[in-house]
C-alpha cells in the first residue's frame, strides 16, 4: 500500500520516494539533507579533491553526529567508563572543530548559502552540539572551557532560534523539536556550571530556559507531522529526545540545589521533581512507540538523519541515570545502563554505515 503524500503546500520529505529521477548534480546536492529543509544553493566549485566535494555537500544538521558522540561520552562517564568517555569526547571535539570551521567559512565566503541553511531546523544542532560538548568538558572538570562554549552557544541561540521559528509551519519533521533540544541543552550546561561554580544567577537562568524549552516543545508538537514515526528517516526520534533532555535539565537543576545555595524552596523543589519525573516517563513512552514503529516499518538504509536517532537514544539513557540520582531512585540505574549500551550499539552501527557511505561517495568522485 503506497504511503500517503504530504498535504498540499508542504515540501515532500527527503525520505519520501522521488517522483522523477533527478539530474546527477541535483541528486548529489540533495544527499543527506534533513527532512523539511529547503533546497540549498549549489556549493562553490571544488578545487578538485573528491573529499572537498563531499564535504561541501554537508548539510547543517550534520551537527547531530557531534551531539550523538558527545552524549555517549557523558553516558560512559556516568557509568564509570572514563577512558571510553574521554575517547568519544575527543572524537566529538574533532567533529565540532571541523564543523565550526566550515560554519565560519560559509558565513564569510558563502553568505547566501549560510543564510538559507540558518533557517532550517537542523541549524539548531550548532547550539545543541556546542552545549553537549561543553557539558562533557564540565564532567571532566574543565569548567573554564565549558564556560567559553556556553557563552558561544548563548550567542548563537537567539539568532538561530528566531530565524528557524519564523519558518515553522504545519507538517514538520522531527527536526522541529531541535529548538527545544538546543534550549534545554543550554539549561543543562548552565545548571551543571551553576553547581560547579556556586553561581545562583546561572541556575536561575537555566530554570527560565528549562520552562521556555517546554513551551517550545508544546508548539513544536502541534506542528509535528504525526506520520513521521512511520515515515521519518530517523529524525522522528527527536520528539522523544527533546523530552529526555528536558528531564535531564530538570535533574541537573535539582542537583544544583544540593550544594547549599538554597535555590528553590520546598514547593519549588516539589514541582520541579514532579515535572522531571513526568518528563522522563513521557520520554520513555516515546522511546517505546518509536521502537515499535521501527520494527513495524523498517528503514534499514543509511541516512544522515540516523544520527538524530542515536542522540535521543543516548540522551534517554543519560536522563534515566541522572533522574535516578536526582530523585534518589536507585532502581532506575539498571534500566539506564541497559539503554546506554543499546545507544552505544546504535552509535557503532550508524558510524560504520556513515563511514562506508562517505568512502563510497568520495571514491565515486575520484578521477578515473
Describe the structure.
The protein has 368 residues and is mainly alpha-helical. The protein has a single domain (56-354), classed as Voltage-dependent anion channel (Glycosyltransferase, Alpha/alpha barrel). The protein is 69% helix and 0% strand. The protein has 14 helices and no strands. The protein has helices at 24-30, 50-56, 63-78, 82-109, 111-118, 125-139, 143-165, 178-197, 200-223, 228-231, 238-256, 266-296, 307-326, 333-365. The longest helix is centred in the last third of the chain and has 33 residues, at 333-365. The protein is globular, with a radius of gyration of 20 Å. Mean pLDDT is 84; it is low at 1-34 and 42-47.
What does the average pLDDT come to?
84
Low-confidence segments: 1-34, 42-47
Number of strands: 0
Largest beta sheet, briefly?
none
Number of helices: 14
The first-level CATH class name = Mainly Alpha
Q: Structural class, from secondary structure content?
A: mainly alpha
CATH homologous superfamily designation: Voltage-dependent anion channel
Overall morphology: globular
**Strand fraction:** under 5%
**Distance between the terminal alpha carbons, to the nearest Å?**
42 Å
Number of domains: 1
What percentage of residues falls in helices of 4 or more residues? 55-70%
SSE order in H/E notation? HHHHHHHHHHHHHH
Radius of gyration: 20 Å
- Could you please say which CATH topology applies here? Glycosyltransferase
Amino acid at each position: 500500500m503506497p504511503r500517503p503524500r504530504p498535504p498540499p503546500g508542504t515540501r515532500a520529505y527527503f525520505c519520501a520516494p522521488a517522483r522523477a529521477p533527478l539530474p546527477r548534480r541535483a541528486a548529489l546536492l540533495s544527499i543527506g539533507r534533513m527532512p523539511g529543509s529547503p533546497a540549498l544553493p549549489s556549493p562553490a566549485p571544488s578545487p578538485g579533491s573528491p573529499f572537498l566535494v563531499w564535504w561541501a555537500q554537508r548539510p547543517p544538521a550534520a551537527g547531530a553526529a557531534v551531539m550523538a558522540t558527545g552524549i555517549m561520552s557523558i553516558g560512559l562517564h556516568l557509568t564509570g567508563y572514563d577512558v571510553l568517555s574521554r575517547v568519544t569526547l575527543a572524537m566529538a571535539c574533532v567533529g565540532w572543530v571541523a564543523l565550526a570551521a566550515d560554519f565560519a567559512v560559509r558565513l564569510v565566503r558563502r553568505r547566501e548559502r549560510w543564510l538559507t541553511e540558518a533557517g532550517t531546523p537542523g541549524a539548531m544542532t550548532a547550539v545543541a552540539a556546542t552545549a553537549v560538548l561543553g557539558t562533557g568538558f564540565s564532567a571532566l572538570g574543565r569548567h573554564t572551557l565549558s564556560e567559553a562554549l556556553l557563552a558561544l552557544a548563548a550567542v548563537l541561540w537567539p539568532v538561530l532560534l528566531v530565524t528557524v521559528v519564523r519558518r515553522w509551519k504545519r507538517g514538520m519533521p522531527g527536526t522541529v523539536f531541535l529548538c527545544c533540544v538546543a534550549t534545554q541543552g543550554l539549561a543543562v550546561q548552565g545548571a551543571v556550571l551553576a553547581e560547579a561554580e556556586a553561581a545562583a544567577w546561572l541556575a536561575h537562568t537555566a530554570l527560565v530556559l528549562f520552562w521556555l524549552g517546554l513551551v517550545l516543545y508544546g508548539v513544536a508538537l502541534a506542528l509535528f507531522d504525526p506520520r513521521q514515526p512511520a515515515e521519518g528517516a530517523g529524525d522522528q526520534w527527536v520528539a522523544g529526545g527533546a523530552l529526555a533532555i528536558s528531564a535531564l535539565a530538570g535533574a541537573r537543576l535539582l542537583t544544583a540545589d544540593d550544594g547549599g545555595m538554597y535555590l528553590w524552596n520546598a514547593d519549588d523543589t516539589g514541582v520541579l521533581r514532579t515535572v522531571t519525573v513526568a518528563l522522563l516517563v513521557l520520554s520513555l513512552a516515546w522511546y517505546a512507540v518509536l521502537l515499535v514503529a521501527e520494527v513495524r516499518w523498517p528503514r534499514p538504509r543509511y541516512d544522515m538523519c540516523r544520527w538524530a536517532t542515536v542522540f535521543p537514544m543516548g540522551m534517554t539513557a543519560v536522563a534515566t541515570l541522572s533522574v535516578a540520582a536526582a530523585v534518589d531512585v536507585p532502581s532506575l540505574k539498571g534500566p539506564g545502563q541497559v539503554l546506554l549500551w543499546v545507544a552505544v550499539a546504535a552509535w557503532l552501527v550508524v558510524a560504520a554505515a556513515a563511514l562506508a557511505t562517505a568512502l563510497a561517495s568520495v571514491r565515486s568522485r575520484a578521477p578515473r
